[in-house]
């Protein structure tokens, strides 16, 4: 994003594990400042992870962190067929329309419980 690429992250606004949301919010302000656009999906919890980069995508359960890669039994599907990539892009655009876009101000205005939860969660991030 800092180099001009269009980087968008879609996150759930509701989480079944609140501390994970609080820890994620710790990183949001820095990402927003370098030009990453962050959206919080309102309708439901998101669990599947997807990455769409130019003419390549992956969809699955793996988180992009060391714990998922090293310890967890996760599975992903790599997509390189243009028809599927186009469909994934359309679905992603629809999901963005059902989301609120984060701003530096909105991240800063989260309550003290979220800030405290984020700080505490950072201590446990290896196991998350």
What does this structure look like?
- This protein is of the alpha+beta class.
- 42% of the residues lie in helices and 21% in strands.
- A three-stranded mixed β-sheet has the order 1-2-6. It has a three-stranded antiparallel β-sheet with strand order 3-4-5, with helices on one face.
- Strand 3 and strand 4 form a beta hairpin.
- Helix 1 packs across helix 5 (112-123).
- The longest helix has 16 residues, at 18-33.
- The chain is globular.
- The mean pLDDT is 86.
Order of helices and strands: EHEEEHEHEHH
Arithmetic mean pLDDT:
86
Q: Which structural class do the helices and strands define?
A: alpha+beta
Task: Please give the share of residues in helix.
Answer: 40-55%
| DSSP strand tally | 6
Radius of gyration from CA coordinates: 15 Å
The helix tally amounts to: 5
Specify the biggest β-sheet.
Answer: 3 strands, mixed
Shape: globular
Order of the strands making up the biggest sheet: 1-2-6
Give the DSSP E fraction (strand runs of 2 or more residues).
15-25%
Low-confidence stretches: none
What gap, in angstroms, lies between the N and C termini?
Answer: 26 Å
